[in-house]
Design a protein that fits this description.
Blueprint lengths: L8 E6 L8 H13 L5 E6 L5 H10 L7 E5 L4 H6 L3 E3 L9 H8 L4 E4 L2 H4 L8 E4 L4 H12 L2 H18 L2 H15 L9
Parallel strand pairs: 1-2, 1-4, 2-3, 4-5, 5-6
Length: 194
């Protein structure tokens, strides 16, 4: 469905196509990666939104579409599509807590994120993905290069990401931590550990 070739390394993002989600950063990174000679690297953004056509036009003007950057739009089978990719990127400028990052991890993808606390909190740098400096294309390209050049590293990090997600981000843990906060606010217990 994504038109990938066997040698392609697919870096996926999922979400609304709006500036706040940082898709412009991914487009610039794709251009840098191409100029650095990272052959067979394909960025894919799944989703639509108010800035969708603007992002498409930007990628097209840089000569990235359709071989280096693809915009399939809104799709319904995202979990299946994620499993067909090699890594994920979530360059958002901030969020409460990114469920997309957990979806990437569940699919066994190493995740590249900026060092915004609300975006990177689920990623263990160097083990489940890479945390780069917000807006820093050089540090993001360095991390991306590491992932592109080693299928073994991608697989190891993806496996660690999946294990981390399945063990740490459970409904049972969420319910327990919510109850701890509710008990604290009601004066029934001490302050929960961060």
């Amino acid at each position: 469905q994504l038109g990938l070739e066997p040698n392609d390394v697919a870096v996926v993002s999922v979400g609304r196509a709006i500036r706040y989600k940082g898709l412009d950063f991914s487009i610039e990174l794709a251009e840098r990666a191409r100029d650095a000679g990272l052959d067979h690297l394909v960025f894919i953004h799944i989703g639509d939104g108010p800035d969708f056509e603007e992002f498409q036009a930007d990628a097209d003007a840089r000569g990235l579409t359709p071989h280096r950057f693809r915009f399939p739009g809104r799709m319904n089978n995202v979990p299946t599509l994620l499993r067909g990719c090699d890594a994920a990127i979530h360059p958002s400028h901030g969020e409460g807590f990114s469920l997309a990052v957990l979806e990437y991890m569940r699919a066994g993808l190493p995740v590249l994120v900026p060092d915004r606390p609300s975006v990177c909190q689920a990623i263990d740098h160097g083990r489940t993905g890479f945390v780069h400096r917000q807006g820093d294309l050089d540090s993001a390209l360095e991390a991306l290069t590491s992932l592109v050049r080693s299928a073994e590293r991608r697989a190891d990090m993806g496996r660690a990401a999946r294990e981390e997600m399945l063990s740490q981000y459970t409904w049972a843990r969420t319910a327990r931590e919510f109850q701890d906060v509710a008990d604290y606010l009601a004066g029934k217990a001490g302050r929960p550990a961060p």
